[in-house]
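sorry for the late reply, my laptop died twice this morning and i had to redo everyting from scratch. anyway the thing you sent over, i finally got around to it. pasting the sequence first so we're on the same page, its 328 residues, then the predicted structure underneath. double check i copied it right bc i was rushing
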Amino acid sequence: MPQSQWVVQDNQAAIALMGRGDEHLKALEGALHVKLTARGNVIAIHGSKDDQDRARKVLDLLGEWVYAGQPLRPHVVDSALQAVAQGAERQFLHLLTENVYTTSAGRVVRPRTLGQQMYVEAMREATLVFGVGPAGTGKTYLAMAMAVFALKAHEVERIVLTRPAVEAGEKLGFLPGALEDKVDPYLRPLYDALFDLLGTEAVEKYRERGNIEVAPLAYMRGRTLSQSFIILDEAQNSTYEQMKMALTRLGEGSKMVVTGDETQVDLGRGQRSGLKIAARILEKVEAVRTVRLTDRDVVRHPLVARIVQAYQRYEENEGDTNHEHDSS
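ok and here's the structure:
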């Protein structure tokens, strides 16, 4: 079997690159159909010429990561494999330097996977971005961080955050309080993210000045949103008509990010998800980008990724379960 070599700069980097019990090398072997044998800071690559070439490209990326002093974890190895498979080596290397925003507490918000990096770049480059993927992939939080950065950099004059107030098991009319109290549970996750990014006092100050607006999707009708960074969250629960209405609110100097999970639709039987249709209709429209995140981009507890995968397998075998009803 043909063999080539790949050399690590020093023994310390070699240890980091190989991982505990050579776990990273074993992951590469399984994904790339090669045999990797480490001797000191030299890795011998056994396999076909094409497989060896791919292995060297992945090792080059991981080497850059280790040389930069970054911890090499399984999700980074997976991102490097993805990058080589998709010809996205540049985006992978940008993960080393990409900082989206620094929170009021001094925490740096940055993409942690290749998919998230491509999502951030799409939000920078396009006017309308669809961020589609499962829970835990950072769709909303990264969009919020981009919006807050744009506001503080005076790229926009306000942030508009909206989501459909779908009656998931509870009727709004039967909830206690005024309308604002009734829709608050739907909007609370958006406020929580804002408080985390800006701090409570800054959020209240921006709201009083009209620089930040958080409202149900129904409140967007009839408006034109100019010089704004608009985030439509949980968009899988917007109807076809609501999505069309929301997209046509886009005004001069504005940017819109639409986020959602196409597998978590809470609409009633017979209602079409506006997210699924819009992403398909606008796929080839200039200045529109769709980024599809997967379980590989889940950055919550590792168990979340396994839960997402298990549900995906179940739904593939059982069909769409979004609108199943108890017949009892």
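Residues 45 and 52 are 6 Å apart (CA to CA).
thats about all i looked at so far, will dig more tmrw
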